Write the structure tokens for this entry.
Amino acid sequence: MSNDHDGTTRPDDAPYVVELSGVHKEFGDAKALDGVDLRIRAGEAVAVMGPSGCGKSTLLNMVAGLDRPSAGTVRVQGQDLGGLNENGLALFRRRHIGMIFQFFNLIDDLPALDNVALAAQLTGTSAKQARRRALELLDELGVAHRKDVYPATLSGGERQRVAVARALMNRPALLLADEPTGALDSRSGEQVMDLLIDLNQIGQTLLIVTHDPNLATRCASRLVEVADGKVARERMLESSS
Amino acid sequence: MNSAVWRASRAAVKRRRVQTIVIGLVVFCSTATVLLALAVISAARAPFDAAFEGERGAHVSALFDPAKASAEQLAATAHRPGVEAAAGPFDQAVVTIPTDWVGRPPGPLALVGRPDPAAAPVDRVEVLSGRWATGPGEVVINAGGGGGTRFLGTSLTTSTGLKLTIVGFASGMSQSAGGWVTPEQAAALHPTGRQMLYRFTDAATEQQLTTSLANATEGLPEDAVESGQSYLVLKQAFSAGADTYLPLMTVFGVLGLVVAALIVGNVVSGAVVSGYRHIGVLKSIGFTPRQVVTVYLTMVSVPAVVGTVLGTVAGWAASYPILKAAFSGIATGTAVIEPAGWLPAASLLGVPLLVALAAFVPASRARRFSAAQAISAGSAPRAGRGLKVQRWLGGTRLPRAVSLGLGQPFARPARTALTMAAIVLGVVTVTVTTGVSSTLARSMSAPDGSTHIDVLTSAFSENKITPRLTPEQTEAMLHATPGAEQVSVRSLVRVGIVGQPQLVFANFYGGDAMVDHQRLNVVEGRLATGLNEIEAGPAFLDQHGLKLGDRITLVLDGRQTTVTLVGKELEGNANAITSNDATRALLTPDPHVVEYDVKLAQGADAAAYQKAVTDADPSLSVSVSTQGSVGPVVAIKTFSTTFTVLLSVVAALGVFNTLLLTIRERRRDLGMLKSIGMTPRQVVAMTITSVAWQGVASGIIGIPLGILVHRLIIEHVRIIAFTDSMIDVWGAPLLAALALAGVAIAVLGALVPARSAARLPIAEVLHNE
């Protein structure tokens, strides 16, 4: 049994959602990842920390299928990503991955509701159904009253909540967060952290890349420290929430 | 320009390699197109005027009846009011040359007795080879379109047995004679007319010329003037060929310029918009607003100048063969047909100026931004535009990739308008070309499905073997040879027209079929099949001031017959008429056959027929006839196809450039869409949809415009008389096909950017933002 961020326990025999084995990634002569092994079970919340340029984001990209390793295997939800072409990777992300970014990456031309609905509409869900589900999510995240507002006029915290709603739209097995509080003021940052904790509490697997020790210790049950493209240390965290 | 500005400009050019190449290509294509159009426009007018003034050409070449006006009376007309200068009187005699001579068919030859005209006050005919006639028995031939040094020293024998030795070839813009002899020799030829060559102070219009001639000849007997040939008619004949191409070339030249200006404006505008951060950085490190504008203008000017230089070279090189085609078969006299010398200079200065103007407006936007505004505009989220449309599309049943693509252009309405304008012009070009080609296709006689054999006699071919058979025997042989179904016969002679100084070519058709399968279509009236009937093309009618039903008198070998104009041909030589063998027999007993057309029976062996004919008479040149199109038709089709390809490519480049800009601006959105599961195919669909609907809309606007321009062009091609059925070519299938032209141009330009969008590296895009 292992502790989760809220002190509750997760069964040690929960299936692995992420399995990285001997993953290398080189950009020219530079080694971004140098033989990384990492496993994340369903329901876990894992934070990856390390100095700039250590390979954190590259690691996240490998798990999301946004980039391919130079060597080694990446399995997510039992699927070997190395065996998928670009189309297969897109379909994989659509079904299994939700992503949130430091700078939100919302589409400026679409109101909050349509930004969220977009993820489902790409899978062929009708506009009506997608908007209904998007509204439910915005409601759960406390920003339903801002559904018709365009990103440019949302606050930073609201934007990130909309981005989280979009990431959850297709009920992903794994939620990836790349510096999710990096562009927010402290109050908005706190709100997003609470949101991530809530999600994990209801069973959402999380992989968070961050520079912020506060975010890591509050939201994650396990901390993976990366240095020079290698996993330097792993340790379980006590929840501070 | 200081080194910092130059360095920043050079860096901007390097950073936007693809855009730089697009600007260069667009300017290259446009410059070449415009230069070609201007070359034809200038060559249609300027060379005639230059040569005419250089040799002090005659505004009117007047022919007088010597029985009604004495030489003294005529000499006195040179001093009448309104006469600026005059030459003459010169005796004129018409002799008949009964056989082929210097590559020309038999017929009459108008000889004028003149001393060396090198210093004459009017019509300084230029000797092109040999020398001027100085003694009896010598003749100088008007080179017109033929003759040369190889015929110098050869002799002509007239029908009366007089032998004249060719001592020179000469030419003049006034076309005042078929040949020149000494005044003494002319007097000995029993002249039938006296020629006066006038230059008038008022000679701008036909009306002024008529009035000036009337003033000059006041006091002479009323019918003393037999004819007066106006230089304006010659000028029109000179440019007749080029006039065929002018409407088309002008339209394409203007379209090329407008498309170039639109696309350059679009490119620079996009460069400024996508370069906000760059502008901010430049200003923050101390660049003045003027220097920022200079950087952006220089960035555009570098490829524009390269494109202009290459386009000028290409256009200049292409203008020679095009002018050669435009002026082929036209008597150009001493005029030098070449593109005007000022064209390269005008294009080298004018096109970059146009590009700079197109670039200045968007570049001056860069000037207005403060450094902070510019930097924040480059990174802050954009305020959404076209929002209602996007929102509505998001709620439709369309696949999301398609609805996103449809809404995208509304985010940048100005850019969309410029891109659409370029596609509209592309559609106009395609519509015009399709219309012109269809009209020309309809104007040509439909093939009858049979094989035809062309048989040229030695009079008309390069084959100078002495014939074994007479024309009558040849016709009988062609009939008797197995495989022949019908044999038609064409005779060609030059005949005079009473009251007109110039000779014209007359084609007389006979044999089994009055209608040769290559004979020109009659578009008004009917074929000239009856005795004393002729038909002619619109250029002939124009230049001789004739209409259907008019009567003229033809003269040949001292005989004459009055004929009625019963048919207007689709096109045709400005100096040619068509008639029948019965009419020919009234003028000359010699058949003057130059060609036979044999229609073979179905299944006949063409090769065996050709061999049998050649065996029967080796002097005959035999070949299988091809149902080809005639000169201007081929040339117009070639021009329009070339320009369509050029302008369509330019329009597609406009789309290509717009999409590149859009993709660059929306990299982050694309990365995000891919990160949430948009497949590469969906990215391509979205990108292509964003321009495909613009292609559809452009078709709706461009097709009616193209139809209008097609009609304008066709109505201005004066040497071809198109009928309504030839002009109204727009059936539903053709319109449907044209509707696809805009989509095709848009999709063609979108393919590469769409694929590059689909391949955008998501991780790199999202983490660089």
Q: What stands out?
A: The first strand of chain A starts at residue 2 and ends at 3. The CA atoms of residues 8 and 53 of chain A lie 34 Å apart. The two ends of chain A are 20 Å apart (CA to CA). Chain A touches chain B through 42 residues (CB under 8 Å).
